[in-house]
Amino acid sequence: MSAADLAARALRAIRSAVTIGCSGALAMLSPASAACPVCGRAFRGQGKVSFAGLCPACTEAIPWIRRIECPVCGRPERCGDCARRTAASFVASRSAVRYDASVRSWLATYKYRGHEALGPVLGEMMAEACRHLLAERRARYPHFRFDALVPVPLSEERLAERGFNQAEQLASCVGARCSIPVVEALRRTRNSGKQSYISRRERMRNTQGLFAADESRLPALFLPNDTRSRSIESLVATFWPTFGSSPTPHAGQPLRLLLIDDIYTTGSTIDACAGALSESLRRLYPGTSVEIYALTLARS
Ligand SMILES: [Zn+2]
Ligand SMILES: [Zn+2]
């Protein structure tokens, strides 16, 4: 591939990669009464603990995962799944909350009933978990950072039905709050049907080859963080000369990506996405070391 081709690809990717802010500001807690974005009840916030504008009862109900047992998938209980897996394509996955009855109903309201105002609230929960994950890694690797957030793509069919991809919206919230760019670097190769109704074994089979990297967008993963909000013209001037060689903007550090999805169940979706991304990256950018992590709202 010529340098000009690479540069053109990178610029196309940046256009689609520049993080759009978290749509819908979080409800701020005012001394006057406010409506809770989850239950809709009006409440007075004075002196009460409120997370992201939720009423005290809903704030209480958030089933945070504070202590993890499985260092791979972040499960709060002992985990047989990760012990059984012979090789994972991702380093570690973390989730903000348990998938209990409250979270199940919040996600259903958000995803299936189109209550998009819940997106920023759920995104804020994930941003909280993202900060924890960063702190956890930085305790061992002080320079640890994520180069990009990559949302798990929705099938065309599901997107048409729902009108939005929850993973993209959640990624855009986490990106805005934690200053990490979002790059939609994955695509679905086919429709997979509804994952919620199938067994663990079927799920594993179902995700094989389901995702592929969107190779035209991969160059955007390598751009230094502070360049991604700059104008296309200034990026052309800066990066055009350098795109002929293998992109290595961060000296000695691997490229670290954080996959974003709403629910982690068996890990087969995350594993398939991570596998597809690493395969393309290793093939197109030989010599680049890649580490893939995942963050989901809920752990079922
Ligand atoms: Zn509430
Ligand atoms: Zn596990």
Automatic annotation (TrEMBL):
An MF annotation (GO) of this entry: glycosyltransferase activity
Keywords: Glycosyltransferase, Signal, Transferase
Signal peptide: 1-34
InterPro entries in the cross-refs: ComF/GntX_DNA_util-trans, PRTase-like, PRTase_dom
Coiled-coil zones: none
Entry similarity comment: Belongs to the ComF/GntX family.
Protein name: Putative amidophosphoribosyltransferase
Species whose genome carries this gene: Paenibacillus methanolicus
